[in-house]
Each structure stands twice: as C-alpha cells, then as structure tokens.
C-alpha cells in the first residue's frame, strides 16, 4: 500500500518564471533576489495562501502577463522581507518591509496590491507592462 505524502513535505518553495528559472530557499540571498528581479519583466513576491496575493496573480494573468512568482511561507518570510528591504534601499531593520504581494515591473518596485490596482483602474498598468516587455499587444 502506498503512503500518502503530507502536503507540507511535498511542496517545495520555488519561484518559477516564464523561462522556467527557479530559486530555492537556500539560494535566496540578496544577490539571487536581485537576479530574479533583473532577469524577469514582472516578479511577484507572494505570501502562500494569501487571498490578496491570489487576486494579484489573477489580475496579471488576466492581462496576459506571465509573472515570475516567488511564494513566501512562514519559514522564510522574515528573510525575504529583509532581502526586499535591502533591495529597495531602506536597509535598516526599523523600516517597514514591503507589503506582500510585492510586485516588481521592469526591474523596479511597482508596489503592492493597492498600487497595482490603482494603476489598473487609472489605465497606467498596461503601458507600464508594455514598457517592461511583459505585454506584447
């Protein structure tokens, strides 16, 4: 008889982009976060199981964008938040970490759900995505 694999043990924390690139937790230093942001047109750092992160993914997929998604869980949330703070230049631990979902478009921090939704409503999102070459039409 086969033994069931527990859900937690089966999942691996990876970020998969359109090109199939992956980053595991052991590789997620500041350099690999920078590399992930620099090599992909759109990157979403999302908390696993977060409904707002799911909405962000649906919004981007609805526009025809295939973002690289880095799922953050309880184990590596503090580490990823610190790496993102360093990447954004705040660097000090007293500064508030970026919100999840944290979206990078064209190598620059675009914002969280409120900023992306606001850009979508105002019509600024599609031109930004085209500029970053995430949209072709």
TrEMBL record:
Record's keyword annotation contains Cytoplasm: yes
Family to which the UniProt record says this protein belongs: Belongs to the glutaredoxin family. CC-type subfamily.
Location of this chain's protein in the cell: Cytoplasm
Cytoplasm recorded as keyword: yes
One Gene Ontology cellular component annotation held by this UniProt entry: cytoplasm
InterPro entries linked: GlrX-like_pln_2 (IPR011905), Glutaredoxin (IPR002109), Thioredoxin-like_sf (IPR036249)
Keyword tags: Cytoplasm, Redox-active center
Protein name (Swiss-Prot/TrEMBL): Glutaredoxin domain-containing protein
Predominant place of localization: cytoplasm
Entries under Pfam families matching the protein: Glutaredoxin
Domain Glutaredoxin: 42-109
Annotated organism of origin: Penstemon smallii
């Amino acid at each position: 008889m086969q033994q069931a694999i527990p859900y937690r043990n089966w999942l691996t924390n990876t970020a998969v982009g359109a090109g199939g690139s992956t980053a595991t937790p052991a590789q997620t230093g500041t350099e690999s976060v920078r590399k992930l942001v620099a090599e992909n047109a759109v990157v979403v750092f999302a908390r696993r199981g977060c409904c707002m992160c799911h909405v962000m993914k649906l919004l981007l997929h609805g526009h025809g964008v295939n973002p690289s998604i880095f799922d953050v869980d309880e184990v590596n949330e503090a580490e990823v938040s610190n790496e993102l703070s360093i990447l954004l230049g705040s660097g000090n631990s007293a500064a508030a970490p970026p919100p999840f979902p944290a979206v990078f478009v064209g190598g620059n921090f675009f914002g969280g759900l409120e900023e992306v939704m606001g850009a979508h409503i105002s019509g600024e999102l599609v031109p930004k995505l085209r500029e970053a070459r995430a949209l072709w039409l």
